[in-house]
Amino acid sequence: MGVLAVPARRKHAPYISPELPALGAAVLYALLVGFAVWHHEPWADEAQSWLLARDASFADLWTRLLHYEGTPGLWQSLLYICTRAGLPYRSLNLVSAVCGFAACCLVLRRAPFPIAIRMALPFTFFLCYQYAVVARSYSLVPPLLFGVAVCYPQGMRRTWALTTILCLLAAVSVHGMALSCAIWLAFYIESVRNWTNLSLPERRRLLAAGGCYFIALFLLVLSAWPASDNIFVRRPYWSFDHLMTVTSKSIQGGFAGGWIASAVAIALSLPLLWRGGTLLLFAASFVSLSVVNAVIYSQVWHQGLVFLGWLAAAWVAAQRVKPGWAAILSLTIVICFQCYWTAESAAYDWDSSYSASREAASYLEQTGIAHQRLFAIGYACVAIQPYFPTNIFANMYGGHGPSYWDWSIRNHVNEDSERLATLRPDYVIVGYKGTYERDLWIGRIRQSGYRLVRHFEGSTFWQTAIFEPESFDLYGRPAP
After folding, report:
1. Which residue of 55, 144, 308, 475 could cross-link 428, Cys pair, CB 3.0 to 4.6 Å?
2. Residue 157 is part of which domain span?
3. How far is CA 373 from CA 33, 107, 316, in A?
4. Is 456 helix (H, G, I), strand (E, B) or coil?
5. Contact between 73 and 67 (Cβ < 8 Å)
6. Complete DSSP assignment for 104-152
7. What are 31-55's pLDDT values in tens digits?
């Protein structure tokens, strides 16, 4: 009688769900962004949006004030809800942090990349700092754009969802509008190519959604069209050399900081975009953003939108075909550079003043100067206003109106530096964002006999270095 040999049971390595590392990355992201937000001092552009939402009515915001901001008002409308709910100014950057966390969760849960790439992407510079800690309208772009990427491959079944998100993306800013139009164009070109294969209900749905999108786009353009007395963006700037310069800087600053690394990263991703059918999507996004940057307005923080457009195109492509080694290497190059930028920016914000506005506001309140006849010189002074419930500057709206900056020709705040000897305010605070502004205004103030009382030092930061000052000098009128 034989003996049945029972093989020894093999010991298997404990199974680790891929959700656990993703959960750990989400927690780490929330902690990092939360600590950075706690130490961040909002600068003038962040404050301006909050003041518009706090001091203006919803109707006035959309029918008049946005014409001077040169942007649709989705971000300001969101802040309008926050201010009417009684949230303090400190919550401003929590709003952007929530947007960043939503984008982080979408990447971790839905991005069609290997788990290591998904865990690292949320910590890149634009997703973890510039569009999460810094509270600007661009904070809305990542979650909306990633929502588009999720819906895009099933666009014919989810046409209305895709159209709704694209309308919201267009309502963020002029640059968001450029991205939205580029994505809509790429999607509809794909749909037209397959028009004969579409059923009649699909065709009708596509045409109806397109009509609604155009109506929404028209209304958004109407709300943001610059007023005739706007002094911020008066007319388009047509220059091919400027277009090339801005495009070059967008590639470098949006990807890996240098021409070679950025070009290599983009080149390595092209096979994935080609096989996944999203080369047109990326090209349309890139061209539209480049034109808006060159013709209308561009700053360094707009460079991140080029990166996000590229990432969305890679996302959609990777849902259709498996990313190869070249695409993974492309993402890895960008991640390595941008995670370093995140670390540098967060470390600077932790130890230094991103804006001196909080310190200046505290001093003005403690000394009672905020309740005396105080003049402001320089747009940067807007960053001080949200720390007070009402306007504290006597030369803005007569000292009794709203607190936001007026971008019309009616604004005489900066010109008041030439008439201090006649107007004789008790104090003057100068907010400057460059040596030219500082030297110009301080020279005029000193000629009027005012003496320096206090200096408040702050500087905004970009990637690895200080970008520009946002400092304040307080001057007092000499005793008679």
Report:
1. 475
2. 19-351
3. 39, 51, 57
4. strand
5. no
6. HHHHHHH--S-HHHHHHGGGSHIIIIITTTS-SGGGGHHHHHHHHHHHG
7. 999 999 999 999 999 999 999 999 9
- The residue type found at 198 is L
Q: Are residues 341 and 412 in the same domain?
A: no
CA 123 to each of CA 96, 143, 337: distance values in angstroms, whole numbers, following the listed order? 15, 15, 11
What dihedral do alpha carbons 347, 352, 358, 362 form, nearest 10°?
Answer: 130
Q: Show which of 298, 327, 351 is a domain's final residue.
A: 351
Element holding 476 (H helix, E strand): strand 471-476
pLDDT tens profile 57-106:
999 999 999 999 989 999 999 999 999 999 999 999 999 999 999 999 99
Please tell me whether the overall predicted TM-score, pTM, comes out greater than 0.90 for this model. Answer: yes
Q: Is residue 274 part of a domain?
A: yes
Tens digit of each residue's pLDDT (9 = 90 or more) over 376-421: 999 999 999 999 999 999 999 988 889 999 999 999 999 998 999 8
- Whether residue 457 is contained in a domain is answered as yes
Torsion of CA 228, 232, 234, 237, to 10 degrees: -160
Pair (422, 454) in one structural domain: yes
The whole-chain average pLDDT of the chain stands at 92
Same-domain pairing of 338 and 388: no
Is residue 6 included in any domain, yes or no?
no
Q: Give the C-alpha separation, 276 to 179, whole Å.
A: 19
- CA distances, 99 to each of 78, 162, 351, 352 (Å): 11, 19, 25, 24
What mean pLDDT comes out for the span 189-213? 89
Q: Are residues 122 and 89 in the same domain?
A: yes
Instruction: Kindly state whether residues 206 and 128 are assigned to the same domain.
Output: yes
Whether 346 and 403 share a structural domain: no
Together in a domain, 339 and 221: yes
